[in-house]
## 1
Amino acid sequence: MSRVLVLLVLCGFSTISSAMSSPISGAQDDTRIDSEVANAPALLQEATDLFDRGVALYDDQPEQARQLFAEAMIRYEAIVEHHGIQNTDLLLNLGNAAMLADDSARAVLAYRRAQRLSPDHPRVRRSLAQARARVGVDLDPSTGARLQGLLLSWRGVVPRSVLAGIALVGYMVLWALALCRLLGVAPWSRTLLVPAVIATGLALGLLLFEQRVIASSHDAVVNRDVMALNGPSEGVYEPTFDHDLPAGVEVTILEQRDGWVRVQLIDGRQTWVRASAVWAV
């Protein structure tokens, strides 16, 4: 028993280190826009000014305001795409500008990327929900999607730092129990073993599952209204649905072939669209 316990805590070190790391370049999760875009201050200032002007005109001149939001969106997007800068605040600004410019696809994309950086950010969750409602496509998730959603349901409720803390404390407790077992002291250590193993295993399991989902994710957003087909060729295959897939619908890319992609909707249905019709999250 003591050897098993010692082996468990020794092998757990690399696992807990991996699970506690951020799923994607988390070093910039908590940074602010001003420090991140030091190489593009003029572009950021232009985008901010355009956005503020749009807000000022929104009530009296909505069409002109939308144009200003669209111009702000283009500049925010340039900072993200051309300067390679991504953080939660910048992506939220991009998504907000896109929403106000009536570009639901760009809004969903920006908010999804922000969600990957900060899954427990309340404004990101609210904004993404609003963008999805704007798209207006309500699909019943497949069994697999429901299960994945259930296993990730802690995101947005329990911060990753809390789960990481539980895993770390549990790991330290297991070390202490192992030492007590080897030294033959603390007879109550047996009563702590099972709760410590369960707490540590659950916290690590949820964090590692999140990492795996993000690492293997091929999620994408349809960027325009597009006809979905039963195969990768126009004029050969029939449409999969009796309507186009609307811009902003979220899909998972399953296969790429000669400028086409086979995608899966959240309800499990699969279809083919042009690769140019989707943006990878």
## 2
Amino acid sequence: MNRSGKEVNAQYNSARGGGITDRVSTRMRRRMYAHFIAAGVADDDRILDVGVTSDRDQLASNYLEAWHPRKDRITACGIDDASFLEDLYPGMRFVHGDGKALPFPAQSFDWVHASAVLEHVGSAAEQARFLAELHRVCSKGIFVTTPNRWFPVEFHTVLPLLHWLPAAWFRALLRTLGHHTLAREDNLNLLGRRELNAACAQAGLKDWKVQSVSLGGWPSNLLLVARRP
């Protein structure tokens, strides 16, 4: 937390664990997990989950590890120390690593999963680099979720509409409101469909599809499935 700013948790948001925002987020993530499995994930597929968090307060933190039945097929990776997951979910393993430079050979896993991570890796160029690295280590495909910039409420701050302003204006307002951490591009860089498609093209992906899940009839989260040809 910035000394003069508002506290953010390891999920890069200021929502209280167990609160209304957290409960709604959990319901949405249940739907996103169902989309992940429906993408063609087999029971014995090797899964890499990139961007696991040290947060233990939010209901759906590290939901893949919590909900997927085959813990022994999951490798979790992130810059946070989430080694406690190995005790919490016996059978899976945790590897400390950066999603933009993964410590694994090419095609080490069938599927690579990353939920609500892409918006936290930096500039558009860094987001493309992140997607390319996820794709490098998959043999079947990647599944990536990110909040839709064009949903009326910004999920990390729970502020309405301000994130529709030009990015420089939005970040200036975040600083004014005390959200100093989230005002930095390397901590929060929101994407809409256009930006996500552009990142896929820049990453050199060949076969991808962007879907969404909706909240109140409005697309709230974007879901990227990029398969290896």
## 3
Amino acid sequence: MGQIHTKKINSKQIVISLDNAGQRIDNFLIRYLGKIPKSRVYQMLRKGEVRINSGRIKQTYKLLEGDILRVPPVYLDQQKQTIPSSSLQQRILKSIIYEDESLIIINKPAGIVVHSGSRQSYGVIEAFRAMDDIYKKIELVHRLDKDTSGCLMLAKSIPILKQLHSAMYNHEIEKSYSALLAGRIVDKKITIDKPLRKTNINLGERMVTIAENGKSAMTKLSRERIFQSASLVNIKLITGRTHQIRVHTASIGHPVIGDIKYGNRVINREYKKQGLKRMFLHAKTLKLRSPVSKKFLTIDAPLEPVLCEFLERLTN
């Protein structure tokens, strides 16, 4: 084994500029510190090591122009610095389905995380930043689960990120998904309106449950096709909570097939024998106005060939 070299990054004070105003403190630190594990960033916030204007803040705090941010000294294990492989970089580059001077939309492959975490050295965002200087400032606008494929939006600057976050907050961006659900759905249209509560269980892993004291969440389902023991549905998100589709569909007895966290193990095993090796959930369409041209965009992400072929087998 090679020798581990530890590098100390000294304490710093940073005056927040207009470009970074409005960004959450946790997201700013993850971006600013780069190779520091996310778990260490959240530990610093919990322990009050990070200060804004000499006071403690929560991880949800949004930065203001002129804030004085104190970043504590941190240690970087240089042996653990990892760079996304060139094959992953090329795969992500080939997945771009829309790009302009302000944003990028990719058709994210299933099995790839959107950013590094406690169990992942790198993801989509790190792959982009490793490619070229033009992508160094790229930021995630929203997230997709590791095993969900489809439309993923990235902003090329913090001001564009803020514009897109504002548009999402005001329901000016429409997202729709395709999902294969267990069982035959009788109703053509279903609205699920159940509050969700998120709990961190260990090592950053999250579990979401339906709870009266949770955050409001609404999902609309439209049935497209019925198979012998499954239903293909189109899903429109009215809110965008963590694991919303997966928890909501499971709550009505029709979980997403292939979902190992909220789905049905017996059903998943049967469909795996038939050739479905992944969760059948795909972010198929994004509708929004371009932050630069203000033109209305409709971006469609084609289903992966393996999912198309599986649907053909179900049909036959």
## 4
Amino acid sequence: MSHAVAIVDIGSNSIKVLVAARDDTGQLTVLKSRTIDARISAGISHAEPVLSEDGMARGLAAIQELLADSASLSPVRAQLVATSAVRDARNGREFAERVRRATGFEIRILSGPEEANAIGRGLTCDPALANLNNFYVFDLGGGSLECLSFANRNIQEAISLQLGCVRLTEKFVTDSSAPFAPEARKRIMAHSRLTVAESGFRFDLPFPAAVATGGTASTVRALHGAQLGQPIEKTPTLITVQNLRALLDQLAPLTLEQRKLIPGMPAARADIFPTALATMIAVAESGGLTAFHHSFYNLRYGLAAELLAEL
């Protein structure tokens, strides 16, 4: 087993740590993975987003907790990265400086293309996707949607769209504690389809598959696992668009408090989950996709692979 590295991913909705190493065969091996829902991105839909004092405090506390949690594994290198919420916020650099003073670590604020490419590298580490040659990847976060296209397992296109589920919930949902209104669903889907179309992202691969990463796909599998009485790792990795539509139909009439009571539903994600489902359905419709393969190997895995290659 090689030396370990740690990646702390400061996302719009959650902050995650991955501690990983290479085994004797060169395979990326997870030593620790943990997520804290900090939601630092409140207000991200504003024309000039600003991280709130409460959001920055939650973010810093989560980062300190995850760094302490990973220290027991003695990683030889640790890297903190931030994505859409910090990248877009007027005071994102101020937050990064606050984290540096408190922890001693600089935050690498990823551009949209850097984020998308790191996700792509992470996915190539997933043994379950080893047989996929031509495929699209969609990583839906709180602030942005990363869209990638792979031909013969090489990245052909990587773009970042402002379609994150926190961003669109703030923009289109009047009251996230109420049932998900048909009008909100219609507007979110129309906006998502238009954004994808205007981005110029090409759905032109021969015999493609589609891969979904991020909290939305994980939550879909967690809900399925709770129904079956199985851990998420044991649930099928294929998520059909038909299942996404049925799940959204089931959740839309429920209030936020009712959604939180559904077995397997993360309480911190229940308010944005209907928006996330509507967005993923719209993306699938844009590309004529019928299903997504789910993978846990996203941004953190790509950055861990990058750090390990430098050791």
